[in-house]
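for the writeup, i need someone to sanity check this before i put it in the appendix. the sequnce is what the collaborator sent (i think, or maybe the updated version? ugh). structure was predicted straight from it, no edits. if anything looks off just tell me and ill rerun, i have time this weekend
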Amino acid sequence: MGMGSLLLAVIYLIFISLGLPDSLLGSGWPTMQVCFNVPSSYAGFVSMTISCMTVISALLGPRMIRRFHTKSIVVVSIGITVLGLFGFSISGQYWMLFLFAVPYGLGAGAIDASVNHYVANHYPSSVMNFLHCFYGVGAVISPYIMSLALRFARWNEGYRWTAYIQLGILLVCVLSLPLWKQNGKRAEEENRHSAGIRETLRVPGVLLTLIAFFAYCSGEATCFLWTPSYFAGTRAGLSDETIASFGSLVFGGLMLGRLISGFIANKLGDRLLIRLGIALELLGILLVFLPAKGYVAAAIGFVVIGTGMGPVYPAIQHMAPANFGRRYSAAVIGLQMASAYIGATFMPMVFGNIQQAVGIAVMPVYLLIFAILNLGLLEIAYRKLPRTAQEA
């Protein structure tokens, strides 16, 4: 295995570490809520604090990328995340979670922005798709860690065991620091001359891309949160276990979509991949719309929605340097991350209020609006780019 392949393996491992903390709160909360003696909805406040910190660090990402090398940002950020995880594991009272939600969220945003920027500038589109597939691996592993902890110990241990895994990944990252030298000098030079956020927002097409990204993440996060509830509210006679299992439909589709895209991305290019992905997503929404009696058509529909969504996030990130130039790519990717987290944090809550008023059967309409917004805004953004980028 050459130096380049080893570095790539480390980058994939970093993205597993990024996914690991993300599912712990959801899977541990039913037990944590009883321990802290707080209402079930209080998970939302902790989750929102983590998301706000992630948005802040994603927006600070361009400035950090200008000043520090990606490898330094990654090592410090994983260290901060470990601190947050250990903090959660020793939290005896609800208010303590807010204290440790700060490093928990700050670490994630900085890793996300810096590694996405590094990969977008130094690797082909296929790597970006595989990278986000590995994020999914991390997010799928952590609920199993939490369930083991709940079976053999307490919820605190779920966070502590995850922190130990993160420490192991941190050690690998520290040992791999020399591998980053291959792109080191060139990357540092480019990063030093990268543009700030204010200047980047004035570049034609950037704002439209950010709103498109916001729309994509709004649909994705709504699926993650509300898919089981959709089946509970629209299909009678399903057991609690069956309903809970539907939570994995979109997530499984998403990982499948990214895995397939990893093999075909370099041939098709980012834009065609996005168009095909959203077309598949629209087909999935159509399947959910079908007035079928059982749940099979809708279940397949949500898997197809996830598969179609799969390549959209990595492809939008990957084409930032091609669309806007390397000078603006760090700021564009940081802004995209912030848009993603804002959409993912608030729009599922907006849908919660809508479905309370008109019924959860409206979910496919909500997803359809965001899918059309996503595709439409990206297509308009492409036309505003410089001619060289338009042909990319």
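The chain has a mean pLDDT of 83. The chain has two domains: 3-193, 199-390.
thx in advance!!
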